[in-house]
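Quick start: read one record
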Amino acid sequence: MTKITRRAALGAAIAGAAAACEKTAPRRTFEVAAGDADALFAHGVASGDPAADSVVLWTRVSPSGVNALPVRWEIAQDAAFSDVAAKGEATARLESDFTVKVVAGGLSPGTRYFYRFGVGDARSPVGRTRTLPSGAVAAAKFAVVSCSNYPFGYFNVYDLVARRDDLDAVIHLGDYIYEYGVDGYGGEAGKALGRDHAPPHEIVTLADYRTRHAQYKADPASRAMHAAHPLIAIWDDHETADNSFAAGANNHDPMTEGSWEERRRNALQAYYEWMPIREPEASKPREAIFRAFTFGDLLTLTALETRLMSRAAPIEYNDVVPGLIAGGPEAVAKFRDETLWGKSRELLGRAQTKFVYETLKASAARGEPWRLIANQVIMAKVTAPNLEPRLTEEDIVELERQWDQARSFVKFSTLGLPTNLDAWDGYPAARERFYRAAREAKADGLVVVTGDTHTWWANNLVAKDGAPMGVELGAHSVTSPSPYRKEFLGGKGAEYALLTGQVNEDVRYISGEDHGYIALDVGRDEIRAAFMAVDTIEATSYTAFEKAAFTIRRSGGAAQFVDVDGLSLAERAVF
């Protein structure tokens, strides 16, 4: 397919916004099944963190009147369990919230398994999982998801993923739960749908975080997704609190909510109890969730941690805008060159950067064609378009009802600075250190998958010196709303998305419409990334369709976009 130039005028792009896509993808309608859940296993089963010879198996039992309960587990190559590969017994204890997590070992590489748990005569649902392949591997398939906020809607995206039977793993990029109470973010939508958060207040204590995880795991679509595929998960901020960093969080008030250290400890304990994830070695901090997964000779997936170990405090718009406006161009230049690019603005930290370098170096030495990076926040450079002439005072007032920094951000957008200071753009020196590690490791074929923004992205990754580093694919959310959706910015959200793509050479595609997941099909010569969407999250009956699809190949070693399907004329003009 002929590559479309980005040089078309923005006016022409917006004029074509309603134009039909080049081809219409087939649509299919589904209904989320409530599913039967034994009362003892009300939260289903899950598996995760696969290796070539083992996988984590998880469940939670709901007993009454006891402090401990023996739980059997078994894993087999057939759903009838006539060929059991491993089995054992674990204990569900009150002190771990009656969760059970075991590592089933002695398994064969690249093999589908079935597993289940039992207590007395009661049996859990049967789960399906898969070990990592070894040796020569021709292809791998992933579903990439993020940002599942319970009150904002039904988890239809999870249901859609659960219907796949060909995935190697589901990659969850964080914001698996949200910390808010019923009067916070998503509260109004939750009341309308009958999906209020439990507990009803913002979660702070260990009991709070456990209750919130239990609510999410009990959701029928969540149970189906976990039972169908192994999970590779990283956290973002809402597993603890909004805009978290090493020393605190934007949504944490020590005066009313206690110490950040205690809240973070509570959040991490509940996370490790309730997620099918291997825990860091005893010598490492609990925050050290970064790890890697090798799929034979095809790819290595490196999962990052950019929130709780090393992240410097984010820069708040309200704190800097008055001084930048008053100081003029000199103040803006100083802020950009000295504050933003300050070496102390860290994301990964020394230990993780060393791990990333060694992992990428080993992958390159093995001759794998691809290196995937599971990443929380947007890595590409994205400059804020000037919003001031495009928004009325009424627009800004309405936006302030949703975001207390809206007015400052509109002023900030006039300065030619990055859109999102919570993303890698707020830590550009850290981004260059990551790129340097990849270069020194001779690790080309980089494809970064990113969550957090509730928005679809297809971005070029380019170092400060202009060298192409790879590409980035941003996943929309399971339910959380996008700031680029058409209803945002006084109905100008979709226009803002097109404008963002127009003024940013590295942003090839951006859309805030339609929740969904990235279907990532990795072959030896190319990767196809399909943005799979659902038409609603406000009912359990939904229609699924392919929103857009991108083909990625290596050119000069670097991963690059070479083809695209499904874009409107306006979107193709930007691409």
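The CA atoms of residues 364 and 443 lie 5 Å apart.
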